[in-house]
């Protein structure tokens, strides 16, 4: 068992199952992936609720509505004018690719490349959609992942997205459910313990494996 697999076992044992992503449909995962960029999830939930309340929670409805109306609905997510354009582009792609059924029938690499071609969708957003929306075994790399695993000492924080993704996927079973759970555990650890500033190293379940954490504790003692 490699380092990434061992760390998964440690995290799962310490934090338990997370049952994440919190979405009701594949389209909601796509919308959430656009709106969560530089936003807290609670604000994304507010924006999604406002879209639903305005009867705009469908790709056709979003594209038919005045741009200003959509922007006002998603205002809680921040950067709402930019995100409105990105959301419209994502909705256009959703329809062009055949909607949920058409996208579900596409091979993973083809679907990933098609979504990466959409304005405003980067690798992290696309892989969120693939993993959480379409149950494809692609590992999501985000800021939590970089911070936690560079502090532990098993990744280079300067490495590119694809390089880090390949490191994880090479060491883990090809299992979308496990990738889903692992990423959710990483997010929970990053929020609760491995913070950007003032990390709670003394309480962290990965302290014994973390070079940064041990150094922090030595400085405090």
TrEMBL record:
The keyword 4Fe-4S applies. One of its GO terms (molecular function) is 4 iron, 4 sulfur cluster binding. The keyword Transferase does not apply. Keywords: 4Fe-4S, Iron, Iron-sulfur, Metal-binding. One of its GO terms (biological process) is base-excision repair. Pfam families: HhH-GPD (PF00730). It comes from the Bacteria. Its cofactor is [4Fe-4S] cluster. PANTHER family: A/G-SPECIFIC ADENINE GLYCOSYLASE/ENDONUCLEASE III, DNA REPAIR GLYCOSYLASE MJ1434-RELATED. This is HhH-GPD family protein. It comes from Spiribacter salinus M19-40. The lineage of its organism: Bacteria, Pseudomonadati, Pseudomonadota, Gammaproteobacteria, Chromatiales.
